[in-house]
Design brief:
There is one protein chain. With 348 residues, the chain is mainly alpha-helical. It has two domains: 276 residues, Fic-like fold (Orthogonal Bundle), CATH 1.10.3290.10; 59 residues, Orthogonal Bundle (Arc Repressor Mutant, subunit A). Helices cover 59% and strands 5% of the residues. The chain has 15 helices and four strands. Strand 1 and strand 2 form a beta hairpin. Helix 4 packs parallel to helix 8 and helix 13 crosses helix 15.
């Protein structure tokens, strides 16, 4: 098994891209703290939207889906799962809720990771829930012609518990001793977790939940208000590409982790920028139509009613629909499509 020594991270020199991203994230985190003190009630409504988006997106990346209505009902705990996909969605929701409410009481350890994995499968009968893998797994790619290629072979099942223990110990040590910048250590830990691939199933979703947990524990709270999982899902090809590029010679401890670190830091920074955009809309007490108008001015090209709802969490869906109708009638917006395919474009 490869060696893990996170103290070596501090010996690396980081390029200007990495340093610039870290500085920008700290700046945005400081601004967010001020925003939260100014308008906590309005911004709290962003949490509800982010939970739904995170649960939907993280599961959708793995092909686990349901309808938008069912997704909202499941996340709001207003219904019970009807099938396997919904059981998995409900489990993800439960773990995300625990992280939101109790992140400061969830230390990083193999035992806690196993407990969270068990909760993720608590709505279904999975004998491997809360247990590390018992068969060799592989990271593969399936091509349009049907052939499957193995991209990476994780450590064997017998090596997995020790490897998982080791990366938790290393992360806790360098963070506790303030040896390594958390925004560097977090993506490196997540990348190692994904390379170890400790479970028969649920590795990707667990990695995204652990990303949120570690960011919260290090005082980066953007994922509470803006879904990081949704941003990953929108550009999942970049997510997988950065992982693949960072996996070469991982077993020898010679991997280049830069692509994945940059990818994750850019995703975090983009989420902070989204948060600032949404705050700029809710910071003023405006009539509904003016708030919707301000939100549409942030959009370029096509946008949907749901896009505006995310930017105006304090407005009811009927207020948003009414405002959009008035703006279409006034010639400010053009409406196209029908039903779920409806979208809008700014005219002026």
């Amino acid at each position: 098994m490869r060696d893990f020594n996170y103290s070596k991270i501090k010996e690396q020199s980081w390029d200007s891209d990495i340093l610039g991203l870290i500085a920008a994230i700290y700046k945005e985190a400081g601004k967010q703290e001020l925003y939260l003190k100014q308008r906590p009630e309005e911004l709290e409504k962003l949490v509800e939207i982010a939970k739904i988006q995170s649960t939907e997106a993280s599961n959708a990346i793995e092909g686990i889906v349901t309808t938008s209505t069912r997704m909202r009902q499941l996340v709001e705990e207003k219904t019970t799962p009807k099938n396997r996909d919904e059981q998995e969605i409900a489990g993800y929701r439960d773990v995300l809720n625990i992280i939101h409410e109790s992140f400061d009481a969830i230390p990083l350890s193999q035992n806690y990771i196993l407990q969270l994995h068990k909760i993720m499968y608590s709505h279904m009968n999975n004998p491997m829930a809360g247990r590390t893998k018992n068969t060799q797994n592989y990271i593969t790619a399936k091509y349009p012609d049907g052939h499957v290629e193995t991209l990476f072979t994780p450590p064997a099942p017998f090596e997995t518990p020790e490897a998982l223990d080791k990366i938790c110990e290393e992360f806790n040590r360098v963070i506790g001793n303030m040896e390594v910048e958390p925004l560097i250590a977090i993506p490196i830990f997540i990348h190692d977790f994904l390379c170890i691939h400790p479970f028969n199933d649920g590795n990707g979703r667990m990695s995204r939940l652990l990303t949120t947990l570690l960011l919260y524990r290090n005082e980066f709270y953007v994922g509470k208000y803006i879904s990081l999982e949704a941003k990953i899902a929108k550009k999942k090809d970049l997510y997988y590409d950065s992982l693949n590029r960072s996996q070469d010679v991982w077993h020898e401890g010679k991997e280049d982790s830069l692509p994945f670190i940059k990818y994750l830091l850019r995703t975090i920074l983009a989420a902070y920028h989204d948060f600032e955009d949404r705050f700029s809309i809710v910071e003023e007490k405006l009539p509904a139509i003016d708030m919707v108008r301000k939100a549409t001015q942030n959009k370029i090209g096509k946008f949907t009613k749901q896009d505006i709802r995310e930017l105006c969490p304090s407005l009811s869906i009927s207020s948003i629909e009414g405002s959009l109708r008035k703006m279409v009638a006034a010639g400010e917006l053009m409406r196209s499509g029908v039903g779920k395919s409806t979208f809008y474009v700014r005219v002026k």
